[in-house]
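Kindly inspect this one:
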Amino acid sequence: MLPAVPLIAWRFMLKGTERGRFSAMTLFAWLAIGVGVGTMSALLSVMYGLESSLRDNVLRAYPHILVRRVAKTPPTAEEQTKIQELIRGQTGVRRAMPFVETEMIAQSSSRTMGVVVWGVAEEEWERMAKNVRRGRPPSATSAFVEGVLGAELADHLRTDIKDTVHLLSPLRRGGALGAVPKSFPIRISGLYESGHYDFDKQYLFVPLLDAQDIVGKGPVLSGWHVWSDSLESADEVAKAISGFLPAGWEAQSWTQFNQALFHSLKLEQLSMFLILSFAVLIAVMNIAITLIMHVSHKRKNIGVLRALGASASQIQRIFMWQGAFLGMIGMGLGAILSAVLLYYIKNNYQFPDIYYQTSVPVEIRPLSILMIYAVCTVLVFLATIYPSIQASRLDPIEAIRE
């Protein structure tokens, strides 16, 4: 009888009523598991896609590691040279570029806003040119100081390429009137669009030497943009760089200067996983209820099987197999449902034009999907224990007498 145990379990599942007909409880058990598992898989894949898209946008705006001066006193030229050599000689560092950063006031023909001016080395413009959506990077042969303005900042200032923006520095002094803001005209050569809204709203990029002239402190650097060999190694490389930096300097990886953002995403993912886990748990409880109903409906069949020589353990395995079939079909329906949902979301659903990205990003992480199905399998197994034990304890004489 051992090879027939799964076959009997399959027949019991398809003919779950006392009259040997298909039970609606079986269909509901399939759908409950399918909807719970499919929805969880699809939703987490969309959330992973949003996380990866946001991470890519952040890394188009910021480097892997940011080494910058936090002390108020400017560094010496010897200190800057020594730090640069140590950074570029550090294991795991792929590229390191100096930069200058200062906050100023940008004034267009119609509006005035605070901006962050970022002086970029000439070698870095080739990489940044990929995100210059309109116009071009600054030209070294231009008669005017040129800069690239963040796309959102340009929209707020109501300015465009070839327009002139005046940078005002309230810290400059000159003339008999005391503190007089000095104006630096910048011709906009291009608009920068990283996909990171806050970044594109506050940054103006100019050549490094022009930024040093604007700051007016000579060849002083604010720090270095550092790229590691991989994203995963950025934290370790940042810690290694921090080990030899003198006082007044700090090194932060991309996970640290965007820590609040990515922690909120992780918290949101965990919350959705826990909420949907309750939906899967309810679906598994539906399997337990379905098996209990089937045990009640199949009392006569169980009595006949026991009379024909089936042992209590074989009866128990029949209903455990039945629960396994219910779970497998339900999870199969869940896989189909999640695939259909993800295909529709990725290819048909569109965000409004006010967002940077109009299509919904999707990222399927096999390990997470396997974990969902593994947990569901364990829960289904646990749900079969009580009904199968109850079935194995039925008195065959009483069952046949009924």
